[in-house]
Amino acid sequence: MSATAVHSLWTTAAEVEPLGKIPTPHIEYAQLAPVLIVVGAAVLGILVEAFVPRRARYYTQLFLTTVALAAAFAAVVGLAAGGYGTTEKQIAAMGAIAVDGPALFLQGTILLASLVSVFTFAERRLDPAAHGNRIDSFAAEAAAVPGSEHEKAAVKAGFTTTEVFPLVLFAITGMLVFPAANDLLTLFIALEVFSLPLYLLCAVARRKRLMSQEAAVKYFLLGAFSSAFLLFGIALVYGYAGSVSYARIADVVEGSVRTIDPALADTMGNDALLLIGGALILMGLLFKVGAVPFHMWTPDVYQGAPTPVTGFMAAATKVAAFGALLRLLYVALPGLAWDWQPVMWAIAIVTMLGGAIVAITQTDIKRLLAYSSIAHAGFILAGVIATTPEGISSVLFYLLAYSFVTIGAFAVVTLVRDAGGEATHLSKWAGLGRRSPLVAAVFAVFLLAFAGIPLTSGFAGKFAVFKAAAEGGAGALVVVGVISSAIAAFFYIRVIVLMFFSEPKPEGPTVAVPSPLTMTTIGVGVAVTLVLGLAPQYFLDLASQAGVFVR
Amino acid sequence: MNPVNYLYLAALLFTIGAAGVLIRRNAIVVFMCVELMLNACNLAFVAFSRMHGNLDGQIIAFFTMVVAAAEVVVGLAIIVSLFRSRHSASVDDASLMKL
């Protein structure tokens, strides 16, 4: 008699089967390589902070970050070349992450944009050296109280916050997962993974530290508030569909599930769960995008955060959040399109008009760019509403064009300085074109691209988005979009007029001569702006090839 | 007991938390109210998990707890640094950037 048979003499198997067996996960490491490379480099960066001597940390971190981002971009290109964007698209990591065209396109955009904006993080030539140490945009020691002896000692010792490099890598990890998230849990975790490092990055400016800390508190409290709404929305949608997977939710919404158990039949009949849940999730995503009823944090955070962080955040967060929004609306909730379209119409209209109109009254260049980013969120929403393949590809193209213009514009803002750091008040920019024509001309190119003037990437992007919206039956939205573009053009042109056609003030700001790092950022920004404006066809084709979601 | 009652409780806790965020003025208390909202979400997840008879909701509750813990680390660091430089954690006092 075998041991188990003896055993069975005095025991019986439990009557109740376990609730559900959890299978061991199967992870496709190759398809997830871009994310894994970046998160691996971030963990290495933490170890560098712990073990590498302080003097060598800056170069080690800069090298590690650059190599990791370049390698991750190469991995994205490799996946795209392997057909994962088109024919081989699939869902990896047990249904958690989609590897498809939009995901790869947006991941590539985020990685390239991050790579050039990391160069502005590393810039150390804008300020004169203090105590023989070169200084960057970040606090000598973020924990020291501003103005205290502790802070002065840290500055004198030449400390720098090199932790910003691992932090930015963690944020990029979350941003890479966010547009690829294929279930609501992954969506929420990715949101938190990129938000938490961004809150910290906002708080570590070297100058105007009180403003920087204030921006971080505002961003953190409002961000946590909005992610709680997102999570409650996820709970309600989970209650409705009995699953957090996008494909399953889409089936339940459309009523095409094969087997319906009594619990599911009960919750499926309750549309309030779905509608309220969907609205709360949208609210959380629209907060990250900066669309109008949820935009209050944008100007304060953009103004208070260190300018390199602002540029990174303005570009990469927007790309990631619009990617997640597209996937949610097009993959999980297409069956609900009749319900979300009117709401998104209203939000797009108030976002376009609100951003453009309030921007006119701004006197600070960073706040002005913040309101301009709100208006741009409205333009991109017009493409999202189209619900056509052209809608997807036009949004992808717009995000690519917009992110490089934004990073370039904020990089130029870091150059214009006076005794207190960056001179962000608009009155100080008067006559900049006389004093340093090159910087003013470059900034004018970025402003024209924001305004959507032909021969810049802004025009190609806006044209694509509005065309898609018009063909998708949102003609009225296009009219509002064109009107608010005209309003927005007014204040962009006003800045150009201020720079070139007014007398420079004698005590005006100076323009710092940057190192090759920031020059690269600005140069890439100008190049992408002009190339996408003059010859957009290749990239439009790329976006339209990439514009199919896997389900 | 009918699990739907727990959903009502979750909705109530969530509303209390959201009202607290909007009404209270101390950054720490505002943050505690956000944590209350996250806990309300957890309760809803577990209740729905029981209703549907699958484990997804319970597993999500664990993830939420980890996220909440990470948020505490980041949030307290930021709020404490604000408090140390201003000797006040009031969200009304933080108004350097008002128009």
From TrEMBL, chain A:
Main location: membrane
Membrane topology: Multi-pass membrane protein
Catalytic activity: a quinone + NADH + 5 H(+)(in) = a quinol + NAD(+) + 4 H(+)(out)
Enzyme class: translocase
EC number assigned by the record: 7.1.1.-
Coiled coil: none
UniProt-listed InterPro entries: NADH-Q_OxRdtase_suN/2, ND/Mrp_TM
Lipid metabolism keyword on record: no
Compartments where found: Cell membrane; Endomembrane system; Membrane
Domain NADH:quinone oxidoreductase/Mrp antiporter transmembrane: 181-487
Family: Belongs to the complex I subunit 2 family.
Subunit-level organization: NDH-1 is composed of 14 different subunits. Subunits NuoA, H, J, K, L, M, N constitute the membrane sector of the complex.
Protein task: NDH-1 shuttles electrons from NADH, via FMN and iron-sulfur (Fe-S) centers, to quinones in the respiratory chain. The immediate electron acceptor for the enzyme in this species is believed to be a menaquinone. Couples the redox reaction to proton translocation (for every two electrons transferred, four hydrogen ions are translocated across the cytoplasmic membrane), and thus conserves the redox energy in a proton gradient.
Name of the protein: NADH-quinone oxidoreductase subunit N
From TrEMBL, chain B:
Catalysed transformations (reactions): a quinone + NADH + 5 H(+)(in) = a quinol + NAD(+) + 4 H(+)(out)
Broad class of where this protein is predominantly found: membrane
Any one Gene Ontology molecular-function term assigned to this protein's record: NADH dehydrogenase (quinone) (non-electrogenic) activity
Cellular component terms per the entry's GO annotation: NADH dehydrogenase complex; plasma membrane
Protein location: Cell membrane; Membrane
Membrane topology value: Multi-pass membrane protein
InterPro entries from the UniProt entry: NADH_UbQ_OxRdtase_chain4L/K, NUOK/Mnh_C1-like
Transmembrane region(s): 6-23, 28-48, 60-83
Protein function: NDH-1 shuttles electrons from NADH, via FMN and iron-sulfur (Fe-S) centers, to quinones in the respiratory chain. The immediate electron acceptor for the enzyme in this species is believed to be a menaquinone. Couples the redox reaction to proton translocation (for every two electrons transferred, four hydrogen ions are translocated across the cytoplasmic membrane), and thus conserves the redox energy in a proton gradient.
Quaternary organization: NDH-1 is composed of 14 different subunits. Subunits NuoA, H, J, K, L, M, N constitute the membrane sector of the complex.
Protein name according to UniProt: NADH-quinone oxidoreductase subunit K
